[in-house]
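--- STAGE predict ---
source: upstream dedup step, 1 unique chain passed
mode: sequence only
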Amino acid sequence: MMKKVFVSILLVFSLAITAQEKDALLPKANEEFAAKKYADAEANYRISHSKFPRRTVANYNLGNAIYRQNQFSESKIAFANALKNIKTYPQKHKAFHNLGNVFMKEKNYSQAVEVYKNALRNNPQDEETRYNYALAKKMLKDNPPKEDKNKDKNKDKNKDKKDDKKDGENKDKDKNKDKKDDKKDGDKDKNKSDKKDDPSKNQGQPKPNPGGISQQRVQNLLDAVNNEEKKVQNKVNAQKAKGKPVQTEKDW
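--- STAGE serialize ---
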């Protein structure tokens, strides 16, 4: 069962001497690395690289020193810079292998798979690299990239939105249909109510007579006539009263 990544941190020693100057810091940095003085080794590797920027040894070993200090992202930069100038297969294999270890630490399994694959291309017989490559593929399968997960989630969300939209449209159609049906039923009820008077609405109100004059109006006219007749009768009675003699004394 796969348990851990095989870490292969190997220093590259260089005996190259320039025509003008020998790199005295590189051997010193290698000694400090072997003594586990990784911070001191890092400093001297950086100085060595600044003096001889075209050499790949200091840059590669710098990546190892930084890696040992658990600064994985920074070590990744050093390994990548070394790979730009490395030309031999063994050195490429080691640089790719260690770079793959960095991606495994960062849980970037997709990149680790690709880098280990490149390491195997430069040394197909290395069993540690082959093991790490298989482990990286398994971890990638068990832990797919977040982008893929987000794509799946977005697909599900979009599908849900489409379904919700479709359901909403169907509900709106049903509502509109219900409204139309209610309107039709309301129109029918209105027609029925127009044809048949509501008894409660006509309580206390005079019903119209065939002549078009209400009963109350007829009663008012009759009362007016009666009042005029009374006035005429009162005048007649007043004239009669004027023709009688007026009594000045009382009768005994």
